[in-house]
Amino acid sequence: MSRNFQEVRRLALRGSLLAAVGLAALGAQPALAQKDYPAKPVRLVVGFAAGGPTDVVARAFADHAGKALGQPFVVDNKPGANTIVAAQAVAGAPADGYTLLFGATNHSMIPALYQGRVKFDVVRSFRPLCTVASSPTVLVVGPGMPARSLQEYMDQARSRPGSVTAGTAGMGSSGHFATEMFARAKGLKLNHVPYKGAAPVVTDLMGGQLDSSFATLGSVLPQVRSGKLTALAVASPKRASLLPQVPTFAEAGGGDYSADVWYGVLAPAGIPDGVAQALERVAVEFAKSASAADKLHGLGMDAESSCGSAFAQRVASEAASYAQIARELNLKAD
Fold first, then answer.
1. Which helix (H) or strand (E) holds 309?
2. InterPro entries, per this entry (predicted)?
3. Domain membership flag for residue 228
4. What is the pTM of this model?
5. Which of 91, 134, 288, 309 could hold 120 in an S-S bridge, CB 3.0 to 4.6 Å?
6. HSE of 317 in the Cβ direction (CA atoms, 13 Å)?
7. CA 108 distance to own-chain centroid
8. Peptide bond before 244: cis, by omega within 30 degrees of 0?
9. Rounded Cα distance, 97 and 44, in Å
10. CA distance 302 to 240
């Protein structure tokens, strides 16, 4: 065997060994990332001002995650443009797990309202990790509306097309989409009345100036419990724990209709699997904790953890549905 051949063979074997070590190192990356993560504080970006429901849940999650993982989770409020400012900040951040988005259903509505005017994709630019809470939409009526069941409400709407008013917190709000989705599903023509926020909707409902509203449970729970408003049905697969006496739409004859508002954690696309799995575990633990249940119930929410592919499929499905409705209504945000 020549000396040159032996040298070539030696170099080849050395190269194979280095390649094997490199592949092993690559295979170990997720595990190492999970073991070492987090090594510094984590930024949790929220697209709403401090004090609102999304912010309150985000801060409760941040407190839990910080204690569980040994590093502070710092809430960074970036309100503006219907959560686009916050989503853009996270979409453009390094995919290392140190910048996360604490979002809500509004995230899925961005393509519908801004149709190509944003620099990110709500589906492809993010990796949805886990939801931690949900707030069901509930159909409520005030004293000016004689219906006391969902069937009576639909009968009223059919007998007076375009006359039954349905107030929401604004054009393009979650309540607006929920209203249009139900009206289309049941062949109803409702008179949508947009307000600037949920509070004036509740005021006019109680005063009899407005017939109905597809509202988040937390925004009307005190009035329903006091008897000032009547809840006809909950737009959720199961009854709300805070209003167990109110039927779901399916139970009340409204068909397979659901309009839950979710709250959850999303990361930039490309986050290492090990880091994602660590965060998902913490999110599930938070949703199962007694402290989270107490905090969420005070906001009219239920704990819920839907993670990974199930959460991603939900975001994609919602984004497509909302975009279709927006096109049909020619609905665009300013």
1. helix 308-329
2. BUG, Bug_dom1, TAT_signal
3. yes
4. 0.82
5. 91
6. 8
7. 7
8. no
9. 10
10. 8
Contact of 228 with 207, CB cutoff 8 Å: no
Domain of residue 195, CATH code? 3.40.190.10
Same domain, 149 and 225: yes
Burial (0-12, 13-18, 19+ Cβ within 10 Å), 332: middle
What pLDDT is attached to residue 334?
A: 62
Number of CB atoms found within 10 A of residue 280's CB = 17
Q: Is 173 found in the same domain as 103?
A: no
**What is the Cα–Cα distance from 133 to 149, expressed in whole angstroms?**
28
**Number of C-beta neighbours around residue 289 at 10 A:** 14
| Whether residues 129 and 153 fall in one domain | no
| Cα–Cα distance measured from residue 140 to residue 150, given in angstroms and rounded to the nearest whole number | 10
